[in-house]
Amino acid sequence: MYLALGTGVLYGVDRQFYASSITRSARTFGLGLIVALDYKINFRPNPLLAASIPALHARNAERLADLLQSNGGLYLKIGQAIAMQSAVLPPEFQKMFAKMFDDAPQNDWKDVEQVIREDFGKSPEEVFGVSFSGDPNKGVMERTARASASVAQVHWARLQDGTEVAVKIQKREIAHQVGWDLWSFKVVTKIYTYWFDLPLYSLVPFITERLMLETDFVNEADNAERMGQLVAGEPRLRDKVYVPKVYRDLSSTRVMTAEWIEGVRLWDKEHLTKPWEGRWRQGSPGCHGAALDPPKHLEVADFVRSNLIDERLKPDRDWWKGKDGQGGLGLSLKDVMTTMIDLFSAQMFLWGWVHCDPHPGNIFIRRLPSGKPELVLIDHGLYVHMKPDFRHQYCLFWKSLMTFDNKTLGEIVQSWGINNADIFASATLMRPYTGGDNSTSAEIRKGLTGKEQQERAYEMQQKMRKGIKDILADEKKWPQELIFIGRNLRIVQGNNQFLGSPVNRIKITGNWASRSLVDSPDLSLSQRFKNLGNHLLFKFVLFGSDVYFYAAKVKQFFGAGGGMEDDMELQMKKIAKDFGVELNHGVFEG
């Protein structure tokens, strides 16, 4: 009775004052222990308490996915980080973790209002100059969120001066939960590192620091403004990329107000490519900061009724689709993807300031009056900074990959504490690296001929474990920025593949890597001049990549393939099969 009473009191206090943080942590530790024991007992060629290794993976993937979705908040953010890397996880995990990209439930308006009052000391009406009773001299704001994610939700508003804004408001419970959630993540990773002998814990401080920064909207506003300045200063991008303006006077640690963006999502191929129904030399709504069409006028009675039943107030602005609604932006997918790869390559190789969450939900496409695409980049919470020396090394690493300069490649990865250049090169290119000694392929096939399927699958996954240890061989030397840079590369590759591989991604990326060693202001004039000669030679070498790309395009035209990315994915799948995993880029389909 005392135990039941004590547990009930603790649960009530936890729910009321700590946003269920203690309950969530206890749930995490309990399930973490179950999963760890399950793998300790059953991860063998013939599991004791499972039909097979895939069955073992399936039940634990389901357990983990249920835990992350039940806990919500930052757990969903961690789940999305895992999902981004699900291409190298067993297929059972891939299927479960695709759900991490579903819209999260949104908080009630009273919770939203409370966050605004706590941060500004005023009501939403006072902060944004809006009215919920139909005052014609005030702005308007929707109480129902337009989008809801793991940490925040976004509301549309029109300020008194007619400016339309996106108000991103952190969910109220996050502030109470974040410390507990990251502590639980650290403890579980520490235990797994010791129990399974995998060098994972050394990465945790850097990952948790990045996740903490994602909950600080002042940091996100800083990142957005810095990226806007970098883009504006680069002639190759300033007329092709747009970063929405942030309104600092309407922003705080948990509220960020930015310019409202009208656009088409990156993966909406239909509306990107359908014929343009607007006028000649006319852009889509809001392109390059142009004023948006004014919203419809509402009578006071209509306005009050709309707010009471949570109707949408924002105008649709779909005139560009034509009278029959069958139109689109009339854009070339090649131009769209070229701009995207140019942007993220400049971030990695030229500026060293990398947006690490470029999934399709964070990229809008608009049409410029010239008929060319404009890429709008939002959600600037997750960035990594590359120091100049590391950035120059990374440029040289990519050049070495493209030219099969194995001596330089080996020297660079050794300085990063990586013991296996071959496997790391393949992981970076996301295609088999054929310029090395093929030690990876030889090693994973050694001693496996003639063994039963289950025993072979077990040994392959053990070799995958060894491959991870080789990549993270020297934890003190390993550049932790590579975690998020690799995530960026994988998402960009997935975007290009989904759109039908309209561009030679590897050539564009390699060209930026080489050219950035010429343009980098951190290098001396003599170094930059020397790099210019090397770059001209490198441009000739890239011709071989073009041959591969156009051969794939010819096959695609005759229905014999899906394009360059699909061909590379097929090659990687063959290698991955030897590791006992299946590659699958469709991690955004939830």
Features:
590 residues, alpha+beta, four-stranded mixed beta sheet, 11 strands
* Percent range of helical residues: 40-55%
The tally of helices reads 23
Query: Based on CA inertia axes, which overall geometry fits?
Result: globular
User: What's the pLDDT, averaged over the residues?
Assistant: 83
What's the number of extended β-strand segments? 11
* Low-confidence segments: 575-590
- How much strand content do the residues show? 5-15%
Tell me the structural class: alpha+beta
Largest sheet: 5 strands, antiparallel
How far is the N terminus from the C terminus?
45 Å
What Rg, in angstroms, do the CA atoms define? 26 Å
Pfam families: ABC1
Family: Belongs to the protein kinase superfamily. ADCK protein kinase family.
Protein name: ABC1 atypical kinase-like domain-containing protein
Domain ABC1 atypical kinase-like: 100-411
Quick description:
54% of the residues lie in helices and 7% in strands.
Question: Layout of helices and strands, plus pairs?
Answer:
Layout: H1 2-17, H2 21-42, H3 53-71, H4 74-84, H5 91-97, H6 109-120, H7 124-128, E1 140-141, E2 147-148, E3 152-158, E4 164-170, H8 174-196, H9 204-214, H10 217-232, E5 241-242, E6 255-259, E7 264-265, H11 269-273, H12 300-308, H13 333-351, E8 353-355, E9 363-367, E10 373-377, E11 383-385, H14 388-403, H15 406-415, H16 421-429, H17 439-445, H18 453-471, H19 481-498, H20 505-519, H21 525-541, H22 543-557, H23 564-578
Parallel strand pairs: 5-10
Antiparallel strand pairs: 1-3, 2-3, 3-4, 4-6, 7-9, 8-11, 9-10
